[in-house]
Amino acid sequence: MAQTKDEKAVAAATEKFRKALVDGDGATLNKLTDDKLTYGHSGGATPETKKEFIENIVNGNSDFVTIELTNQTVVVDGATAVVRHRLVASTQDKGKDPGSVDLLILLVWHKNKAGEWKLLARQAVKTKH
After folding, report:
1. What residue stretches are annotated with the DUF4440 domain (predicted)?
2. Per CATH, which fold does 5-126 belong to?
3. CA torsion angle for 65, 70, 125, 107 (degrees, to 10)?
4. What is the sign, positive or negative, of the torsion defined by CA atoms of 105, 48, 38, 59?
5. pLDDT, tens digit, for every residue of 110-120?
6. Rounded to an integer, what is the distance from CA 51 to the centroid of its chain?
């Protein structure tokens, strides 16, 4: 089934978000995320705010060297979109040995009054091996 215009826009925003995570691009992350962002990690800690999330990416506390997204689905309902995918990444978090993650991700995007898709929520869970 062909993607709708909104599904394509959300998929494109998700790809920009992936690239900004790898590049540590705070300006792009700021542009793509809603001020009310809640960013949940797979470890179960309290979700980060937009400010905390961007600071941790930019300062290297959370450093993605590579990110590969697979099995992505995009569902749009009005001004809300739900994206699910598998994220496999190599990491080099500040003060830690190189690592890797294999996660299932849920992203919730919403279209603002200007017609821009903004990331409102993200939650990760570890895959079962």
Report:
1. 11-119
2. Nuclear Transport Factor 2; Chain: A, (3.10.450)
3. 90
4. negative
5. 999 999 999 99
6. 14
